[in-house]
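Sequence and structure are no longer studied apart. As an example, we show below a sequence and the tokens encoding its fold:
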Amino acid sequence: MTSLLTSAPTSYVAGSALRNQVILGAERRRRWSDEQKLEILAEVGLNSWTVADVARRHDISRQQIYQWRQQLKRKNLRATEIPAMFFELPVSGALAATSPPAAGSGAASSQVRIVLRSGRELHCCPDLDDAALHRLLRILEAA
């Protein structure tokens, strides 16, 4: 049986023995193109994935992802925007009681825009009751 570690002669520095070892086998360093880096960076926030989740998934360090962000920012390259996704929600109870604003009433400009960590957005009227808002947010986070 051959070992991946081979020993070289032992040298003595300040009274302590140092062993030089050479690791044989496949090179660990990987090369990533800018396109691959952008694809990996775009995964952060998708499906509520954190930087740590994406790093584990690709077997890289979290720091590597932060370095890529800075590097690609200096090159003026950005991860592609995730297209807007729309979800059909069942209308019930409190939501059915609210009616859409009349055309030209100016109520459309008073909508509240909520941006979730995942990048999804919720546009609603400011007088939406708390229970309905919580239900909508849970549905969007789970989707």
User: Anything to note?
Assistant: The beta strands are 5-7, 11-13, 16-18, 21-23, 112-115, 121-124. The chain is about 35% helix and 15% strand. The helical segments are 34-42, 51-58, 62-74, 93-97, 130-142. Residues 34 and 75 are 10 Å apart (CA to CA).
